[in-house]
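Practice set, problem 2.
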Amino acid sequence: ASWHPPWYSSYTAHYREAECMKEAMEELLYSYGTDIVFNGHVHAYERSNRVYNYELDPCGPVYIVVGDGGNREKMAIEHADEPGKCPEPLTTPGPFMGGFCAWNFTPSGKFCWDQQPDYSAMRESSFGHGIL
């Protein structure tokens, strides 16, 4: 599957911006056995482990964000789990993304993780491209 804004990204740039879409559609992709999802939007690379609802799940898809091609904006380099980098929850949604839907907080009850989330297998801030 593919669409533009990622559901699983640990970068501060566009952090949890598409949470409303995730809440509405993740069960559908999971129930039909989606194996892999490609996204862009965040100007960096991140690949997930198999994940469903922020928890590792052997039946969940792998999410790959390949938004690190050349752009006129800056690369995403800050992670939401770095000290002092977690955005305030109510600043994350844009009106065009459907409003605030980020009710899935971490197991510790926080909006951001304290370290790289288990779902995040690899992340890299660099300009590049993907080959499938």
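Problem 2, part (b): a different protein.
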Amino acid sequence: ISELHISDMSYLSGLKVLRLSHNRIWCLDFRIFKFNQNLEYLDLSHNQLQNISCHLITSLKHLDLSFNDFDVLPICKEFVNLTQLHFLGLSATKLRQLDLLPIAHLHLNYILLDLERYYANETESLPILNTKTLDLVFPP
């Protein structure tokens, strides 16, 4: 799978779990999930995502965007509305402290930060994140 369209998702109004990991998805507009307001678990890990739109589903409890091709963390101001989120997986080649601010207040059980392709040209420290488990994946 390389792309998803609203027509792929619109008839799945009761969808709660969607695992799309290990595909070739390169771009995703979250507006395709506007008919999936009960979606709680979304796994988009191990794809080729370079950017996403910020129209997130507030019912999400699990969102995995790790092991993708993001330059910077795919976090936007809409993440503050993900109050039910327990798991968040992210990846990036660049990491800035400000990128994590929209999720700093969330009470997450688990954060996975895939920094395997991380390129450190400056030393940045992580802000304090409200999580029970922080899993960092660094380059080998």
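Answer key, part (b): The chain has one domain: 6-137. The two ends are 28 Å apart (CA to CA).
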